[in-house]
Signal peptidase I (Halorubrum persicum), 178 residues
Amino acid sequence: MLDRFTTALRIGATVLLVGCVVLVAIVALPSLAGGANSYVVLSESMEPTLTPGDAIVVRSAPPSAVEEGDVVTYRAPGSVDDADQDRITHRVVEKRQTESGVAYRTKGDANDRPDPTLVPHERVVGAVWFHVPAVGRLVLFAQRPLGLVVLLIGPGVLLIAIGLRQLATAVDGEPSGD
């Protein structure tokens, strides 16, 4: 009975560890999925399309590829450069040709009014390619010390402990139960 429990525990820990690593990798390394960047939705401005905790993957998009109705992520007004992580993800409600090039009027789906300033295309990081509901919560949790322990270190230690137990049992000459 104990061997079945140990096997189930090992399988569960492996599945949890692999699942967490895959999900975090897709969000942390969006190029694996064909994207350019990934972000976690933090506000409710795009509900119900995107909710806080969703992970989004964006791809670069030239001005010719961005149309009204597309959802884009752009550097917030006041962000200095690409290193600044202040990003906004809103829907394009108007596309305009200005003296300085293409610009967009954006609006969060849950907002009553469009955003007050036009977004020049130079500030656009990319168009949202796809999103994964709630995975961003896992990413945010994994960035905290408790999350790191629970999601990565805990299952890893559990797998090592089970392996050591089986090794000790095999050395003692008893069957491992597998």
Notes: The longest strand covers residues 87-98.
